[in-house]
Specification:
4 strands, 155 residues, elongated, single chain, two-stranded antiparallel ribbon, alpha+beta, 6 helices, 12% strand
Length: 155
């Protein structure tokens, strides 16, 4: 008996397998100490709410809230668990900006991840990343300086 064959949501078999696998992986990384991702989830106290322990309840919520292929379940607060109150449906590209490993930079009171600022400023991400990680720069003017920092005059 294979759980993913219970599909009362009108999804294609392929799409149903995708959302079911998302649920299974979410549950596994939160509750299975043998999961390779448990250290980032269950060990940090990230849980799956009681109602979502039932795959059908979770999938129903996801479909009702607009899930389709190309979208993913995102925790609004990365330090809280998976629940209807803390989750939303977003594109994968947007989810990549919300990882705990991202570099967050505040400019004029607005905080975004480094990759997003690079897109906004049309600045090479690799250059900004090196300045932040390898050289330890934290001020925005230096991170996003257009020229060669070795030739920059200090006023």
């Amino acid at each position: 008996f294979v759980q993913w064959r219970k599909n009362p949501f009108g999804l294609s078999e392929t799409d149903y397998k995708k959302i079911y696998n998302s649920w299974w992986n979410m549950k596994n990384r939160c509750s299975n100490p043998k999961s390779q991702r448990f250290y980032s989830y269950g060990e940090r106290g990230i849980t799956l709410c009681e109602e979502w322990m039932d795959s059908q309840v979770f999938i129903g919520w996801a479909v009702k809230n607009g899930w389709r292929p190309g979208l993913t379940i995102e925790r609004i607060d990365v330090n809280k668990g998976y629940s209807p109150e803390n989750c939303t449906i977003i594109p994968y590209a947007l989810q990549a900006q919300n990882k705990t490993t991202n570099i967050r930079i505040k400019i004029n009171g607005e905080e975004k991840c480094l990759s997003e600022w690079c897109r906004i400023f049309n600045f090479p991400f690799k250059r900004a990343w090196k300045r932040y990680h390898m050289f330890g720069y934290r001020d925005v003017e230096t991170i996003f300086y257009e020229g060669d920092l070795r030739r920059r005059s200090v006023s």
